[in-house]
Design brief:
The chain has helices at residues 14-25, 51-54, 66-69, 124-133, 147-158, 174-177, 179-184, 281-296, 364-376, 382-386; strands spanning 6-11, 31-36, 71-75, 79-83, 88-91, 94-97, 100-103, 107-109, 139-143, 162-166, 193-195, 200-204, 207-210, 215-217, 220-223, 227-229, 245-247, 258-260, 265-269, 274-276, 311-316, 319-325, 332-335, 344-349, 355-361. It has 395 residues and is of the alpha/beta class. It folds into three domains: 6-108 and 227-296, FAD/NAD(P)-binding domain (3-Layer(bba) Sandwich); 111-223, FAD/NAD(P)-binding domain, CATH 3.50.50.60; 318-386, 2-Layer Sandwich (Enolase-like, domain 1), CATH 3.30.390.30. It has a five-stranded parallel beta sheet with strand order 3-2-1-7-18. β21 and β22 (319-325) form a beta hairpin. It is globular. The protein binds flavin-adenine dinucleotide.
Length: 395
């Protein structure tokens, strides 16, 4: 692309920041415009539910220097529409033309019905406001015992709140880890009024109404029941959407010169043989290099592929969970028997005995090796995995 060209990046989070850094690292000399819906320069989200809620940090800014990167950063200027024929992004402040476009608008938390005050946790503002409400004795109702719910519960307990957690499924983290492993985590929740298989009807003033007719009093309600890709501004643009912006393994969207990455992208994964949408920090961060390369590639140039083994971590109840890969519901979880080393290692095997995913608890070194086994689809025997003296080893 010529030095007179313009790349527009829509987003303002991790994926956007990494894409811009990679454009410059790869020698792109043209104009870059960043349309960021929030009024902050790019910052990190994982610490919001961890160090920020705990009171250990107020700021999670990413290393991103607009002057050094020569970026025209437009904070608070959200994209409202896209015209692919005229190649312009619409905003309330006017139109911005582009030669290449990167969509990195992330995801938006799901909200539940009702007129009562309902908090979600996605932005630094959400985290600071929630933290101010987590005061000793506050009755906090957390809806959803998944990753966000578990981390907010951890912070609320540490700040002296009394916590009720309402979970529609049969165990904490059951959707992600399955009922059996989720149930094994129940001892961590002993200081919480955890109500499983409990569906919420609506959030009203000072209480959460349950679907079965009961209600739970609440000073603070935090809804952590998942997110939806932020694609509203692209509706009707002609860009292919299907639970996210549809992209190929090079992150190229259905229109020429347009890429998408991070939580908003529904990308083709050759490794899985299906389209996936990954809501993990590691994925959004590492995708920036491929998004930049794909935008800069000329006709006939080879383009890199973005298809890493998924990796996610969570800090909850004083433990570090790290999950590598993706298991199918039918895969068999095999846990190493307790030995001298603290922590846990659970490995999922598919019907052919291949490793599809590994969960470690408080064993960070093993988590790194686990990624290799998942990538290799290593065939392992359950007895080998149960052996308390074994550790996961690369070939
Ligand atoms: P985002 O970081 O969401 O950035 C998208 C940005 O685009 C936002 O600033 C948004 O306001 C902006 N935007 C939206 N619409 C528009 C528009 N129309 N115009 C302009 N801008 C727009 N992942 C892990 O792997 N481990 C963790 O422990 C972990 N913890 C997390 C804790 C919390 C509280 C949250 C919220 C997320 C956590 N994640 C974690 C997920 C991880 O942070 C995300 O996967 C990552 O931030 C995705 O980056 P992104 O750039 O795709 O989207």
């Amino acid at each position: 692309m010529s030095a007179g060209s313009r790349v527009v990046v829509v987003g303002g989070g991790l994926g956007a920041a990494r894409t811009i850094q990679q454009l410059r690292r790869r020698g792109y000399e043209g104009e870059i415009v960043l349309l960021a819906g929030e009024t902050h320069l790019p910052y990190d989200r994982p610490p919001l539910s961890k160090a920020v809620l705990a009171g250990a940090r107020d700021d999670t800014a990413l290393r991103f220097d607009p002057a050094a990167l020569r970026v025209d950063v437009r904070l608070g200027e959200a994209a409202t529409g896209l015209d692919l024929d005229r190649r312009v992004v619409r905003t309330d402040a006017g139109e911005v033309g582009f030669d290449r476009l990167a969509v990195a608008t992330g995801a938006r938390p799901v909200r539940l019905p009702g007129r009562g005050e309902q908090r979600t946790l996605r932005t630094i503002g959400d985290a600071l406001e929630l933290r101010a409400r987590l005061v000793p004795g506050a009755r906090v109702v957390v809806i959803g015992a998944s990753w966000i719910g578990a981390e907010v519960t951890t912070a609320a307990l540490a700040r002296g709140c009394s916590v009720t957690c309402l979970e529609a499924g049969p165990a904490p983290l059951a959707q992600a880890l399955g009922r059996e492993i989720g149930t094994s985590l129940l001892p961590w929740w002993r200081d919480v009024d955890l109500r499983l298989q409990t569906a919420v009807g609506a959030i009203e003033d000072g209480r959460v109404e349950l679907a079965d007719g009961g209600s739970v009093p609440a000073d603070v309600v935090l809804t952590g029941v998942g997110v939806r890709p932020e694609t509203g501004w692209l509706e009707g643009s002609g860009l292919e959407l299907d639970r996210g912006v549809v992209v190929d393994q090079h992150l190229a969207a259905s229109a020429p010169g347009v890429v998408a990455l991070g939580d908003v992208a529904a990308r083709w994964s050759p490794r899985v043989g299906a389209r996936v949408r990954i809501e993990h920090w590691e994925d959004a961060g590492s995708a920036g290099a491929v998004a930049a390369a794909t935008m800069l590639a000329g006709e006939g140039d080879q383009r890199p592929v973005h298809d890493p083994v998924p990796y996610f971590w969570s800090d909850q109840f004083g433990h570090k969970l790290q999950y590598v890969g993706a298991h199918a519901p039918a895969d068999q979880p095999v846990e190493r028997e307790p030995g001298e080393t603290p922590g846990r290692t659970i490995t999922w095997l598919d019907g052919a005995g291949r490793v599809t995913a590994v969960l470690t608890v408080d064993r960070p070194r093993e988590s790194a090796t686990a990624g290799v086994l998942v990538a290799e689809r290593r065939v392992m025997a359950p007895a080998e995995l149960r052996d308390p003296t074994a550790t996961l080893q690369p070939a």
